[in-house]
Automatic annotation (TrEMBL):
Alphabetic keyword roster: Magnesium, Metal-binding
Family annotation (CDD domains): RraA_family
Alphabetized Gene3D superfamilies for the sequence: Ribonuclease E inhibitor RraA/RraA-like
Top-level lineage group: Bacteria
Stated name of the protein: Putative 4-hydroxy-4-methyl-2-oxoglutarate aldolase
Keyword Translocase listed: no
Positions annotated to bind Mg(2+): 118
Length: 226
């Protein structure tokens, strides 16, 4: 097997994927230290789409999808294809035929720093796809790339097997070694936010931290208030 293809790598466990998949990307991003989120240029093809699972990383040359086909042939059920397409929008890297095959193979979804096409048909399939945009132009299938290696996608480093979660807000990547430790913090974050929202609905709209923060920033003097 070519050294450009890493076939064997540790994936985040299905049990952890199931636990973490219930959270919003925003919750995981917050408890992960407000880091690990891809650039907002990569968005859900439709806002209702959501996907979670271990990353199968793919690096391609702009406009060429040869290695995506290879990755699909290697993928395990539940994998999320995470593709470094270099942000190129001049041609689509995937469309209906490939997405249909992905679904048939049990691939959970696709995240691509590049363009896709056949968006209406993918919408009807309700298959989770996150991309920079769309373009009707098709790709070439001529140029080698890499599978299973570390990539940069949407400005974030992604290792094969890392946990990725994508929803209407965007995409968060969590190192597979760290995910388990974040689950309790994510549950607490959800509970704390629910309590705060309940307080706001009861009329407690003022944030307790606001005035001290304004004083610390020099906006208000000691003793001053809003």
């Amino acid at each position: 097997m070519s050294q450009d293809i890493v076939r064997d790598f540790e994936r985040v466990s299905p049990e952890l994927v199931k636990q973490a998949a219930d959270f919003q990307a925003a919750i995981l991003a917050d408890v992960a230290g407000r880091r690990g989120t891809m650039h907002g240029r990569i968005q859900a093809l439709r806002p209702r789409m959501k996907v979670a699972g271990p990353a199968l990383t793919v690096e391609v040359r702009p406009g060429d999808n040869l290695m995506i086909h290879a990755a699909m042939a290697m993928a395990q059920p539940g994998d999320v294809l995470v593709i470094d397409g270099k942000g190129d929008q001049t041609s689509a890297l995937m469309g209906t035929i490939m997405m249909t095959a992905c679904r048939q193979l049990g691939i959970a979804g696709v995240i691509v720093d590049g363009a896709v096409r056949d968006s209406l048909e993918i919408d009807e399939m309700d298959f989770p796809v996150f991309s920079v945009g769309t373009n009707p132009n098709g790709p070439t299938k001529n140029i080698g790339g890499r599978i299973g290696h570390p990539i940069s996608c949407g400005g974030v480093s992604v290792q094969a097997g890392d946990f990725v979660l994508a929803d209407a807000d965007g995409i968060v990547v969590v190192e597979k070694e760290k995910l388990a430790s974040l689950i309790p913090a994510a549950h607490k974050k959800v509970e704390d936010e629910a309590k705060r929202i309940a307080q706001i609905k009861e009329g407690q709209t003022a944030a307790s931290w606001l005035v001290p923060s304004l004083r610390a920033a020099g906006v208000l003097k000691d003793g001053e208030t809003l």
